[in-house]
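Morning - cytidine-5'-monophosphate inputs below, output right after.
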Amino acid sequence: MELAGKHLVLGLTGGIACYKIAELTRLLVKAGATVQIVMTEAATQFITPVTMQALSGRPVYVSQWDARMPNNMAHIDLSREADAIVVAPASTDFIAKLAHGMCDDLLSTLCVARDCPLLVVPAMNRQMWQNPATQRNVAQVRDDGIEVLGPDSGSQACGEVGDGRMLEPSATFEAICAFFQPKILRGQRVLITAGPTFEPLDPVRGITNRSSGKMGFALARAAAQAGADVHLVAGPVSLATPWGVYREDVQTAQQMYDAVMEATADADIFIAVAAVADWRVDHASAHKIKKAPGQPLPSFDFVENPDILASVAKLPNPPFCVGFAAESADLDVHGEEKRKRKNVPLLIGNLGPLTFGRDDNEVVLFEASGATPLPRADKQLLARTLIGEIAKRAPRAGTLFS
Ligand code: C5P
């Protein structure tokens, strides 16, 4: 589980966005985190401590005079157990208090007394957000090393539209997960292809394959969490764009090739995960091919699609290239053979039919020094391991000519 072993203090301050924290708590608990809820008095006007207790599975603290703490040191004890404090929603008033080190309730005292990182997720009306005092306070807390997540822009509970909306629970969850990841790819630009391609036969039919895109999307997410700038070129899949990733959708192998060739000069690392169709129909019909009695069956001439990975690897100054290979048998032989043929330093092999569409995967790393099998793992956690392996091998951006 993504946040297994992590202990979070989740602080709620007064704002209508408190309703989002019920869902955020559920996501954090499901990911394995221990979530200790602390609320300001104002927050309890928006969502009840009973709801938050039920969702977090732990008693909720509101007052610094809470008699349940035997030593009456809630402000110390709660923060010492925490790997991070997350204040969400963080109101205008609470951010102002943080900027000045004020501590007149349990949550603010806890923040001032902490010895762990603090993340705040602002939520307020757009005028309150734009107010120069708020902007000064936000700049001050950032300067003090406090991580500010968001805010988002869009429609607000008050009916106005603008900056200040709290990040959605899923985006807040993603930002918290990313916060805990070491930034091993900071400053690196990573280009990734993912999913299948779709080669049309006519305007409604086409040839595709069973790649779900899950592995490529998981790698894009893990690379972004590791601090990389990620450009994801995706074939037709129905997956949400990972948080912080720039996504470009394409359909055909040729479109994927064009998109990659355009972006590759800006990439330090290229990871080709897409299951690209080897062939396309030479002249796809402009009209739907009709079935009619007595008509001969349709037949098609195929032409070969460009090999995107091999083309990038052949460039004069290629990024660090990583290939993927799905094989149905004899992975050991085909993996290393394919790595050499495509001329890439690292190829990640898996037994394709066993992994397509699944949430877990088992892979072998092929490189000049030999083959290394990795244990079967959930694709998200495996992606993190693979990003670690790629980061170890890829030259750091800017070091080639220094
Ligand atoms: O399909 P094949 O087994 O050759 O794929 C191996 C690797 O080459 C994968 O990383 C895949 O994304 C890449 N590839 C490509 N363009 C193709 C075919 C494969 O980039 N036309």
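Note: Residues 7-179 form a domain with the Rossmann fold fold (CATH 3.40.50.1950).

O.
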